[in-house]
């Protein structure tokens, strides 16, 4: 069965394959062992095909016979047609001989005319395109289509005129071609100059539109900018001129001319007006012209091939950038209005962002803005210096009275006052600080906001913004506010005002951490960030408070000096017998003043009030001591010492009464101890004890300096010599004088021993 199937396949292949390719098929038959059987099958297949051929021939036989019969009939008709054609040809030849013999000259003439006509047509065929093209050239020139006219001129010169031949009109046309080229070149150059003048005039408007797009939040892409430039300026003259000069072989000269003229325009644009710094409009017009200039150059760069290249534009920008930065540094330095500086900063940011959208590097502009930030900070410091002085000058330096909850909340919303005890008090009540505390605090926040406004859009990180604000605020605190507070301290010499200043600075010092939190909230930088700048507010207000405290001590002492100037002691007064001496009137008034003054100090920190009280007592003691030792007072009587002793007792009574809380025991009395021991030594005439115990820690007169005692004793000796002070002791007068001399001698020995 496999052999039969294989033979069947081979037979089908023989039937369907080209005869030239049957060899490999037959070889496969002889390669096998059954070729005899295959031959039998082949014979059977041949007989089958023969039967099919026979059937087909039988089917078409009658048609074949009919076709032969028709063909025989056609042959007879063809013989007849051939005879007719031969006869017709013979008659035509006979007739032609007659015509050629009679009309041959006419035929020759016609042939010549025909040939001339053909030549004329051929010449006109070459001349008509020249005339048509020259006509087209004239039309293009009239229509000011110079680039197509130049192409037509080139085609006329190189193709049409050589084909037309040597005709006079062709010569005239050839002579006109250079003139027409020159006319086209000059006209194109004129249009280019008009174009350059046009873009110079429209640069301001182009730049304004581009900057407005950025300000409106649009992306400054080339698509938007090109549409704007095309709407305002017709760029076709520069394209036409470029094409014309390219065709003329003058492209390089054209490029050089264009770039040279644009450099000149750039120098004009980059030269600011001398009064540009006076208004923001001056800066805006300057920036608009620069942006317009470079928008045009960018447009030309992207719409022409090689007229300007990237290197040329970058070179122009580098030149422009250096001049822009120099101009802004110069003109911004004249500005002293922070609002104008802030508006200028925003304008420079828009200017930089616009040009950055066109691919120009603007990092130098942002670096310059950081330089301007320092100038802006200085201008702010000057403005806030005036503001702080006005606040301090207008303040009444009295606690703020509040009558209603609304008033209370109004002040606590301006200043972070946290006092639970004050909250519990009923209305009306008083805030411990005066008006300038909430005003100064609000002004500090306003300054911080002003610094924040400048840092916007400068592409700074939150940490950089936070650091900038903190450094500027520190300058405000340590320089401006500190100076103003010291100015107020020196100006307000009243003790009540100084006391209020101390209270105010104490509350401002306590509010410094709220300022830290305020800055952190608006910059989103935690106050405990590593390397974060800390505010110097605490030290600023502490220093101001210390200055106010020192001024209180100085002012209080100055007031005491005014009272002491009223002292009028009779240094030669006799000792009064019987009764107790009363204090001098000036000292009574001084003590009353001190009591009144220290009653105001109740709101001060305890240490300040104690220091002021101790300072006042020491100053009184020192001044009284100076009165005793005054070189102008050459004589002092014992009666004068008794009067001074009475005054000191009055002072000691004041000190013992505790005018200021917080002193332990008789601490305040120590201020008068030097004077007390000195007066006791002289009024009780206890020299033996003094001389015997001198230098011992337990000495009763430990605080009496022998120099002081010697000076005072010498003044008493002078008195005893020139007056009758010891009249009741006349019998012992000489002995008393000797005693004084002896004591003076011993005091001098003590002093000498001390020096040794």
TrEMBL record:
UniProt-listed Gene3D superfamilies: Dsl1p vesicle tethering complex, Tip20p subunit, domain D, Exocyst complex subunit Sec15 C-terminal domain, N-terminal subdomain
Domain Exocyst complex component EXOC6/Sec15 N-terminal residues, every copy: 41-211
Keyword set, alphabetical order: Exocytosis, Transport
Top-level taxon of origin: Eukaryota
One CC-aspect GO term: plasma membrane
Keyword Protein transport recorded: no
Biological processes annotated in GO: Golgi to plasma membrane transport; intracellular protein transport; vesicle tethering involved in exocytosis
Span of domain Exocyst complex subunit EXOC6/Sec15 C-terminal: 364-715
PANTHER family (alphabetical): EXOCYST COMPLEX COMPONENT 6B, SEC15
Function (record text): Component of the exocyst complex involved in the docking of exocytic vesicles with fusion sites on the plasma membrane.
Family as reported in the entry's similarity comment: Belongs to the SEC15 family.
Protein name per the record: Exocyst complex component
Gene: EXOC6B
